[in-house]
């Protein structure tokens, strides 16, 4: 059983302007008031902090049904009934991490994993702290979100004009993406931000939003989660990450 190589995007070492300034939270909530998202949900993004990250790799697109099906066949899991070039959805966090381990073994790249929340935001925001992966203004047609009226997943990479600053696709919409990060308030968060989200189906952060979500979830700073048990209905999928490959191709990262 042959697996196709991952289309990695190399993200250089740099600083991500993570989150949203506390003083801007009310403005953000007002800007997206039509989505009926309460201000408290945005307060999880505060404060804004500059985080320096080493170089890493991230997959250009989410894991597809076709890629997942090889793993499912090898491990006795159900094979989704969806086009092979669509993102796989309905995947639990444990299953996503199992796929990473399996793929690492198959490809000889044991560092394959889920991205951290900070890595995901770095890939989406680049160096300039933009609001959306493509820039500061929202425009219908740059991501598969509810305003397109599509109502389901689309082939990965269908919205190339919505690419992030490093060329990563589908960071907004199509499938909500698991990260490896457990939910917790950011250091220095407002006191009313909950310490745990015990109403979530899973404690790990997701990013980017899915086809069923509104434009607020396309924001690079927006922290989300799996709040319903039916992960297919809410469109939860994932993409791969790994440490940067060192000069000798050993996965050790930049010197």
Question: Could you estimate the helical fraction of the residues in percent?
Answer: 10-25%
Rg over CA atoms: 17 Å
Q: What is the CATH topology assignment?
A: paralog of FGE (formylglycine-generating enzyme)
The H/E string reads EEHHEEHHHEEEEE
| Class from helix and strand fractions | alpha+beta
Residue runs with pLDDT of under 50 for 5 or more positions: 247-255
CATH class: Alpha Beta
- Terminal CA distance reads 35 Å
Number of domains: 1
**Biggest sheet, open or closed, and with what strands and sense?**
4 strands, mixed
Order of strands side by side in the largest beta sheet?
A: 7-6-5-8
CATH architectural arrangement: Alpha-Beta Complex
Shape: globular
Tell me the CATH superfamily: paralog of FGE (formylglycine-generating enzyme)
User: What share of the residues does DSSP label as strand, in percent?
Assistant: 5-15%
Strand count: 9
Protein model, in words:
This protein has one domain (8-243): Alpha-Beta Complex (paralog of FGE (formylglycine-generating enzyme)). It has 5 helices and 9 strands. It has helices spanning 25-31, 39-42, 65-75, 93-107, 117-125, and strands at 8-11, 14-18, 49-53, 56-59, 176-182, 204-207, 224-225, 236-237, 241-243. Strands 7-6-5-8 form a 4-stranded mixed β-sheet, covered by helices on one side. The protein has a 3-stranded antiparallel β-sheet with strand order 1-4-9, covered by helices on one side. A two-stranded antiparallel ribbon has the order 2-3.
């Amino acid at each position: 059983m042959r697996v196709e190589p991952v289309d990695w995007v190399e993200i250089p070492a740099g600083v991500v302007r993570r989150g949203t300034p506390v003083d801007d939270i009310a403005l953000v909530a007002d800007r997206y008031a039509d989505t009926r998202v309460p201000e408290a949900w945005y307060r999880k993004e505060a404060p804004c902090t500059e985080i320096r990250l080493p170089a890493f790799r991230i997959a250009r697109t989410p894991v597809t049904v076709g890629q997942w099906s090889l793993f499912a066949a090898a491990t006795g899991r159900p094979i989704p009934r969806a086009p092979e070039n669509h993102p796989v959805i309905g995947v639990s966090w444990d299953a996503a991490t199992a796929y990473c381990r399996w793929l690492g073994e198959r490809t000889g790249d044991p560092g394959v994993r889920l991205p951290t929340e900070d890595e995901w935001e770095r890939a989406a925001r680049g160096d300039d702290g933009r609001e959306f992966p493509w820039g500061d203004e929202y425009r219908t047609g740059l991501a598969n979100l509810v305003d397109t009226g599509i109502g389901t997943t689309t082939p990965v990479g269908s919205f190339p004009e919505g690419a992030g600053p490093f060329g990563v696709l589908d960071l907004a919409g199509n499938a909500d993406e698991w990260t490896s990060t457990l939910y917790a308030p950011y250091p220095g968060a407002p006191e009313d931000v909950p310490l745990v989200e015990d109403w979530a189906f899973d404690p790990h952060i997701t990013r980017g939003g899915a086809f069923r979500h509104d434009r607020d979830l396309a924001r690079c700073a927006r922290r989300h989660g799996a709040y319903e048990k039916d992960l297919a209905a809410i469109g939860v999928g994932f993409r791969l990450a790994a440490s940067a490959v060192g000069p000798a191709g050993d996965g050790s990262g930049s010197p």
